[in-house]
Each structure stands twice: as C-alpha cells, then as structure tokens.
UniProtKB/TrEMBL annotation, chains A, B:
GO biological process, one term: lysine biosynthetic process via diaminopimelate
Cofactor: pyridoxal 5'-phosphate
The protein's name: LL-diaminopimelate aminotransferase
Gene Ontology MF, one: L,L-diaminopimelate aminotransferase activity
UniProt-listed CDD domains: AAT_like (cd00609)
Length: 393, 393
C-alpha cells in the first residue's frame, strides 16, 4: 500500500520490554524443557481473588443472564456505584474527589498509553529508569522527551532540579521499578514546582496500597494545590489482584486547566469517543474490592507478597548488595553484582538459577547495571529462588 | 498550567453524539417524570446473555478465586482459546486467518479509536453519514478528511468514485446507521480500487451477524486480495450482546504492508505498549459465544431483534416513508416526514410519542433530514412505539 505509517513508531524498540523477556524465557524453556523456572520478573500477581470480590463477580455475571437485571453499555466513565466506592476510598486520606473527576477504565496501562492523545507538543519529563509505557507512548506521539536521572546518589528518588522547565512530568510512587516512594515533604516540592512553572504532573499511584506506615503519601491530592496541577492514574491490578480482570481509574480534577482549556473535558471527550466503558461484572468486582471486607482481604494478599519482599531484602542485606524498594513496594531494585550488565545478569540468573527477573536497562539507560526482582510469587517459590540465588550471588 | 493541549480537540463537537442524546433525554425525563420513554435510539442490545455464555462467564469467574486456576495478565493479543474460536468462526466463510493476525480487545470502539495511532498523515475517506468514531478519531489526530457522500440517489451505499485518491478508507457493512450492506461484486470493486491505488480499507463488520441470506458478504476477506489492503474490525457487542461485557477483535493480515512496513507489527507494538488485554472471564464468555451452541443462541436473539426490524419496516412501508436497512441490519434509516430536520424530528418524537431515536445529522451532514431507529428493544415496547408512531407520522 502507498499509505504513510506513523514514523515515530520506528523510533522505539522493536518490542515492548516484557514481550522481549517472554520470548527469551520461552526460548530457554524450549531448549531446557526440564528447567524449573521461578518467575520473579513480570510484575504479575499470583494469589487468587478474594472471596468478596469473587462473590460480586459471580453475582454480576449471573445478572447478565436474566432479562430483568441485564445491563448493556456501561455509563461512559463508570457506574456510579464504583465511582462512589473510589470517592469513599479517597476520603480515608481526607481527599475529597468530585464524582466527575473520576474516570474508570480497563487499567492504568490503557490510561497512561492514551493520555498522550489530549496534549500538544510539550516537553515531557520522564524518570529514568521507569515503567516503559510513559516513554514509549510519548515517543509514539512524536513528543520531545527529557530524562530525569535516577541513580545511587539520589537513591533513585527524583526531585525537581533547577534547570527543569515547564512541561509534563511523570512521577511514579511507590516507584516501578525502583520501589522508592515520596514523603509528604518530597511530593510537596513537586507540587510547588509544578505550580511555579505551570507544569502538569501525571502521577502513577498503582502501588499505593503497598505503602506501610505513615511516612509516604498515597495520593498526590494529599498535597494542597495538587488538584490544579496533577492527574492521578490508579489501578486495581496490584492492589486487588485484577491483572486478569482489568480495571483502573484516572482522576482528572475539575480544577485542572491549561491555557483556558479544561483537561477534564478533554479526557471526557477522548474517552466518550474511543472507549466504551468497563465490563459490568468487573466493575462490581472492583466495588467489592473497595468495600471494608474487600480492602481487608486485599491487604492480606499484599501482606503475603510483602513477606516475600522481606525475605528477598534479607538476602540482599546478607550479601551486601545495594538495593532500593522492598519496604513499601513489591519491587526490589538491586545493583547487579560484579558490575554485571543488566541483560547479562538476566541471562546469568536464568541459566544458573532458572530464575527470571527484569533487566534494569529495560526501564531506561540509567537502569543499566541494575535489576528488578518482584515479590509476587508464592512463599515456597520465593524461598526456593532465594536459596538458588544465595548459591550463585 | 502553561502546557499545550491537543488543539485538534477544539475542532470536534463539544460532545459525543450519544452523550448529547443522553443529556437531552435526561432533561426531558426530569421535566416529564411520568413520561413512558421507549428507547429506539442508542444501538444497545436488551436481551440477556445466552446460557452457554453465562455458564462460561461464571465458571471463569469462579476459577479466578482458586489458586490453581487463577490467571493474571492475559496474553497480549488474547488467549489462544479465543483466537482459535475466531479463526474457526471465519473458516465458515472459507477464510483462513493466521493466528498472529488476530488481536482481541475490549471492543470495536476502542480499536477504531486507537487504530489512528499507527498511521501517518494520509487522506482519510469517511462515509457521510456513518458511525461518528471514524471521523472524531481522525479529527483528534489532526488528519485530513474527505467525505464519501451517501444519499437517496446511491441508496446510502458508497462505491469508489473516479476522483478518489490513495488514502485510508473506512467502510461499514452492514452499515451503521443506514443498514445497507455490500454484495460480493460491490465489495470487490472496493478491494480492486484499494489495490489499484495502494489504499487501505478499514472495514467495520460489527453487524455482520445480522446478515440474512447469501446476498451480502460477512467479511471483506471473502474477497480475493483483501488481505493485502484491508483491516477488519469486529465486535461481540451486537452479535452476542456483549455491550456490557466488552469484547471485540481486529484482524490485521500479515500480508498488509505500507511502504515496506508491516502494519501487523505496528499494531502489535501499539497494543503491547498501551493495552493490557481483555478480562479473562470475558474471553471465556466470547469463546462460548462462538461455540456452535453459542452461535445458535446468539442467532435466536438476533432473530428476535430482526422481528422488531420487520415490524418497523412494515410501519414505514405503510406510511410510504423512504428508508434503508431493516433487512440485514438492526437499524432503519428513515427520511424524516414533511422535510423535517433530524434534531427537530428527534424532539418531535420525544415530545409527542415519548420515543427516542437518533438524529441522522449526528452521523454527518448528509444525515440531515434523516433518522435512525433501532430494533434492539423488546417486542412489546417496539409494538407500543409503532402504535405511537403510527398516530403521529
């Protein structure tokens, strides 16, 4: 055909990071079919959904088979019952959300991928290393990107710098892949910076439910003034184990405006045009996940994963390996031993311990020489992996 | 904030067509709370999901609560079991699909909205009138649009014209909103045209399951050569009643290439980056909908709706009102009586018969003076609506 493609697609890696890892592991398995692979790589949950969530999912599924309770197209931005549950969830932080600021979706990845649609050609500041979707989606849109470098010196926690200009800033806290999180004071620096420079913060809080204690903030809206400068993207994937169910939401405050235009209105229009809502049974499941019993059951699962994180942390402490994360995050971000490069360490672990992790370089150039290990497997498998790692590290 | 928004958003209607209708109806209800509104407007199904579909949905939901059967992230483009079912479904047309050409999604609307991402600045030819997403998504992307005019003279069935150039062509058959469909010969004209001009056809077959008899094609791939020039977008929404469950799929043949670039590869990359797959229980439900029993049960529902279409057609035949559709489509596209304009007729129907339809003008300027009526309600409500319309038309 003689039609033009979007050239920007030629500027990104051929393959999305986790697709590449998948292929390498598949290939290894085909050569070593008896290998007992332990996956501590892709950030996927492993525990089944909690009872109150399953009950809601099953009940809503049954409703779809009965004329009286059957539902067709969902309301564009989510059923009120789910938006009310989200609003109530935020009230625990003393954050009051307008119902119209809540947009339910099939997941944070979709929202992060699609949010680029509504913005023009701005400077886009992206942490390095970080979840690859922020960068890839902006490169695909032909946007100008600047990296905010994470490293050992700043312990992979990025704060505003003097030479940062007006633009769109992606922040992720607790961070994927580094597991670091912002305190109130640190995030306030960002909000103040954004307000001072007229910038927008896109705040990814997918892992906020893993935060222990009161040291770190859960939502950027805990900071005064954030409603005028920040979008918050959230997910049920890690909090409630919904990676296979698909549900998330994005908060776009009504107060958020750029050069006279309401960002909320733009996203409303974008979603009304290109999205048809979240599956009804899934919305009921999400509502249940935010009920008091649902939250308690989700927290039990999170505590389970964090016990893995504790055991993994202990291993790296023992070995004197530098790492961040593992305390308020399911991710541990380790410095590869012996100055090994990320992908070399990936191969080393896969071949010598049959353990899969994620090479830090896949998250950005500043991730080179680092490696992400996840806490999402079972206790048994994590212990087994720890034993294997103990021998070869 | 001082950041730039996507200016193209300022070039489209403030509100998506069906959002606008929703608001008008809500307002009418608030003023006339006792009005018995019959909705023949938004193309939403009303019959509950069939038993085999519900069984699959419930079984998969239960699996998500048990460690042994719990599933996390779905494979990027859909589980093999669903892709196999789709491949088998197409084989009934003697069309053989490569597994890698099948991309499952949460619905045709998402795919149609997002497919613009992978293309560059081409001439985009869009029927007028047609489903608003094609136009809105391209305007949002700043694309140059030309309209292919449907009217009484061509009976709202658009064929290639001499002055049409190389570009991206959207076709919808059976058509939304006009209900017209292409025969083999007519669609072959399009495929030949596309091959001759190096154009791409984006073929929306969301309503193919409504086709009666052998006169019209179900898939563009029934035409030889279509794999080199066409993408096909499909949906479980209307066929299987999945408007509330959310599932669709897009076929991008491996043969499809533009100036040396594989379109399949581009969409693979786009989806791997910005989408996280379809909900597992919903995929099992879709698989069930494509089983022999599932198809039989879906066809029963479709026959039910088409009985409504038959009754509505009879009314308009009786009144001598020009219309298209209603035979292989759940939509009837009528000429507004007395030369009334679309939105005036919308108000007239709402106020005098408490019936909601969709103003043709909402689908494009060539829809002015026309009106879309849907067959998706119950027999009882459709009969009631017909009686009311009979009095006022």
């Amino acid at each position: 055909m003689n039609i033009k493609i979007n050239d920007s697609f030629l500027k990104i890696n051929d393959s999305y990071l986790f697709s590449t890892i998948n292929k390498k592991v598949k290939k290894f398995i085909s050569i070593n079919p008896n290998a007992d692979i332990i996956r501590l790589g892709i950030g996927d949950v492993t525990l089944p959904l909690s009872k109150v969530v399953i009950d809601a999912l099953e009940k809503a599924s049954a409703e779809m088979g009965v004329q009286k309770t059957f539902r067709g197209y969902p309301p564009e931005y989510g059923y009120d019952f789910l938006k009310e549950a989200i609003k109530k969830y935020y009230s625990r932080l003393n954050v009051t959300l307008d119902m119209d600021s809540i947009f339910c979706s099939d997941g944070a990845k979709s929202d992060l991928g699609n949010i680029v649609d509504i913005f023009g050609d701005n400077l886009v500041y992206i942490p390095n290393p970080v979840y690859p979707v922020y960068l890839d989606s902006n490169i695909m849109a032909g946007r100008r990107v600047r990296f905010m470098e994470g490293n050992k010196d700043n312990n992979f926690l990025i704060l505003p710098k003097g030479d940062y200009e007006c633009g769109i800033y992606y922040l992720c806290s607790p961070n994927n892949p580094c597991g670091t999180a912002y305190t109130y004071e640190e995030l306030k620096k960002w909000v103040d910076f954004a307000k001072r420079t007229g910038s927008l913060i896109i705040y990814d809080s997918a892992y906020e439910a893993f935060i222990k204690g009161n040291e770190f903030v859960h939502s950027i809206y805990e900071i005064e003034g954030a409603k005028e400068c920040a979008i918050e993207v959230c997910s049920f994937s890690k909090q409630a184990g919904f990676t296979g169910l698909r549900c998330g939401f994005t908060i776009i405050p009504l107060e958020l405006e750029a050069m006279g235009h309401s960002i909320n209105k733009l996203w409303s229009r974008r979603q009304a045009t290109k999205f048809n809502g979240v599956s009804y049974p899934v919305q009921r499941a999400a509502e249940a996940a935010l009920s008091p019993l649902g939250i308690a059951e989700c927290m039990k699962n999170i505590d389970y994963y964090m016990e893995n994180a504790r055991m993994l942390s202990k291993l790296f402490d023992e070995k004197g390996i530098y790492y961040t994360g593992g305390k308020s995050s399911p991710y541990l971000w380790i410095l590869c031993p012996k100055g090994m490069k990320s992908w070399d360490f990936f191969d080393y672990l896969l071949e010598n311990a049959n353990v899969v992790g994620t090479p830090g370089e896949g998250f950005g150039t500043c991730g080179e020489g680092y490696f992400r290990i996840t806490s999402f497997n079972t206790h048994e498998r994590t212990k087994e992996a720890i034993e294997r790692l103990r021998k070869i590290l």
